[in-house]
Amino acid sequence: MGVATRSGGTVEGVMDPSDETPDDAAAAEAGQAGAGAPTPAGAGGEPPAPRRRRRLDARTLAICVCVALVAAIVAGLAASALTGSDDDAANGDGDDGGIHLIDTKALLAIELTTVAGKPTTLADHLGDRPILVNLWASNCTPCIKELPLLEAASKGGAAVDFLGVDVVDQLDKAKVMASRAGVTYPWVQDPQGDFGNAVRASTIPATYLFDTDGTLLASKVDTAFKSQAELQKWIDAYT
After folding, report:
1. Domain containing 203: what range?
2. How is residue 170 annotated by DSSP?
3. Under 8 Å CB-to-CB from 61, ≥6 apart: which residues?
4. Mean pLDDT, residues 22-27 taken together
5. Measured between alpha carbons, how far is 201 from 110 in angstroms, rounded to an integer?
6. In terms of domains, do 129 and 146 share one?
7. Are 218 and 139 in the same domain?
């Protein structure tokens, strides 16, 4: 018999050829002859069972595609509904433009500050005509362009009163802006933004129309009026 040796981490059996028996040689020759032959997949030489992996993968992929498509359609419909609601609210369209979410009773009592520094409320400014309330600030570029339109409407025979609400702003800067825009109708300040939060104004300018009893008739938020005609048409639609 040969002696086992260890080299490079492997063990090899070394055998003297004289030790090899005829049976061993025949077995070796048979093993070499069959080394490259394919091994039958099943008993009796039957062909192997068809693989279902590819079919399952295709089915799974199809299901995933369908699910993704349905999800995309649902998401698109939801986004469209939300966008439509926002657009309606911004333009005073829809059922009520989202004004049903505003607590007008609480809104009328929120404390504002006059230019002279005295406390006041929206309720103090209600009169015999509906009142248009416009939220603005001195650092708001769209507000700067919109204020002259509001001033012109207030002098042009509009059937409403006007009130400006300067939101979270410095009084001296607000005065300069109001003067440059030629604003002559009353305006007050909302120092802490309480009034703006109560009317759900996410950005400014924002314009609201109230009836004589404080009922909120319409709102136009997050966008400024672009022309005198647009502003007048909006007022006429709700008065």
Report:
1. 99-238
2. -
3. none
4. 47
5. 15
6. yes
7. yes
Phi, psi for residue 137 in degrees, rounded to 5: -155, 160
Distance CA(221)–CA(206), nearest Å, equals 4
Q: What is the number of structural domains in the chain?
A: 2
Helix (H) or strand (E) holding 161: strand 161-167
Alpha helices, DSSP H, located in 92-226:
104-109, 141-155, 171-181, 194-198
User: Is the pLDDT higher at 13 or at 227?
Assistant: 227
Q: Is residue 172 part of a domain?
A: yes
- The CATH number of residue 136's host domain is 3.40.30.10
Tokens for 20, please give them: 């090899």
| pTM of structure | 0.61
Packed helices 228-238 and 141-155: angle between N→C axes, nearest 10 degrees: 60
Asked, for residue 139, whether it belongs to a domain, the answer is yes
Q: Using DSSP, state whether 218 is helix, strand or coil.
A: strand
Are 108 and 82 in a shared domain? Answer: no
The tokens describing 108, both together, are: 């009328």
Q: Are 137 and 187 contained in the same domain? A: yes
